Amino acid sequence: MTTLVPPLAVFLAKHPLVSQYDLTSLVEVWTGIDFIKQGYGLTEVTMACCVDLTSGEKVGSCGTPAPGMKIKVVHIENGQKLGPNVEGELWIKSPLRMKGYMGDQAASDELIDREGYVRTGDIGYYDHDGYFYIVDRLKELIKYKGFQAGVVGLPDEVAGELPVAFIVKQANADVTEKELIEFIASRVSPAKHLRGGVLFINEIPKNASGKILRRELRTMLKSHVK
Fold it and tell me: What keywords is this UniProt entry annotated with (predicted)?
């Protein structure tokens, strides 16, 4: 068994060099995409939180909680625990979670609640069988000098996804796609460069509580690509 990040899994599945090696001892590949074994985890709890042990019956699911993990879905506004098939933020309690951020108690308190649950920032739900599904991220809005930007991924066969920014300009603002791409590239790591480009729109779509509707951004992106 081995674990691979999605872009590497796709690369190895297609590259002709792989056929030159004997991989008969490789029984399973675990990754974060839906056609191979899936799982879900985050650094703050130091290990996988969910694992999918089915044979593909639960399409799109990242599995059930790993041993020792407690996972609940809560309302993003009031923190109330939610039932099956209702989307909310995933909070996770683990015996192996981080203690907090060194020298930053305020950030630690914001991340971990009084009961020891880590606020993941991931939006998801669980079904009646206890299988979890990750559908979105809670923090998606980027603000730069009055511009609002929502970032989504443009599917790419080699890289997996390329970041695309949807930009809402200030009134009378004069900025180009090239300027924004170069500005971002000068301030972030290469993985965060806007290799998918920039699209200017009139308004970032949000729900009644002010959360970005990233699914609508993805729909806009698909229409633009076509």
Answer: Ligase, Monooxygenase, Oxidoreductase, Peroxisome
Q: How far is the C-alpha of 47 from the C-alpha of 94, rounded, in Å? A: 9
- 97 by Cβ neighbours in 10 Å (0-12 / 13-18 / 19+) ranks as buried
Please count the residues of the chain. Answer: 226
Q: 């089915």: which residue's tokens?
A: 54
Question: Would you state the structure tokens that stand for residue 17, as one six-digit string?
Answer: 């060099």
What's the gap between Cα 148 and its chain centre? 20
Amino acid code (one letter) for 31: T
Secondary structure element (H or E) that encloses residue 165, with its range: strand 160-168
| 126-140 tens-digit pLDDT | 999 999 998 877 765
- 198: Cβ contacts below 8 Å, ≥ 6 apart: 164, 165, 166, 167, 177, 180, 181
Residue 182 is encoded by which pair of tokens? 């170069």
H or E element at residue 110: helix 105-111
Per-residue pLDDT of 40-95, as tens digits, reads 888 888 778 898 887 767 888 889 998 889 999 999 878 899 999 998 999 999 98
Parallel, antiparallel, or unpaired for β 39-42 and 47-51?
Answer: antiparallel
- State the Cα–Cα distance between residues 37 and 54, nearest whole angstrom: 8
Strand partners, 89: 74, 123
The mean pLDDT of the chain is: 82
pTM above 0.70, yes or no: no
Are 140 and 212 spatial neighbours (Cβ–Cβ below 8 Å)? yes
